[in-house]
Design goal:
alpha/beta; 3 helices; about 30% strand; 6-stranded mixed β-sheet; about 20% helix; Conserved hypothetical protein from pyrococcus furiosus pfu- 392566-001, ParB domain; globular
Length: about 100
């Protein structure tokens, strides 16, 4: 099992964080098996692309809400990490608890 759960949509309230606000959150290690995805569909082109993080944040975005960790952005990077047999991913974690 790669993720704790495969979800569909964001169950937490809208946080309206900008890219700049996300960038201010320092990345920290997060176990893949603690993450709940907010997307249930993947694009293989994004997973296999060499420059998949070229235009976006290097670190995935995770929202902690009601004790759960939701992978808001970066499911492709997380899956790529799992394919490389890594169980931990560095991500920016926004605390909404």
């Amino acid at each position: 099992m790669i993720f704790k759960q495969v979800g569909e949509g964001r169950p937490y309230p809208d946080h309206a964080r900008s890219s700049r606000e996300w960038a201010a959150i320092p990345p920290r290690p997060v176990r893949l098996d603690q993450l709940i995805t907010t997307k249930n569909v993947l694009d293989l082109h994004q997973i296999l692309a060499e420059d998949s993080t070229f235009y976006g944040d290097l670190f995935p975005h995770v929202v902690r809400w009601r004790g759960e960790l939701y992978l808001e952005d970066g499911v492709h990077r997380a899956l790529r990490a799992a394919l490389h047999q890594r169980s931990v991913l560095h991500a920016r974690v926004l605390e909404l608890d």
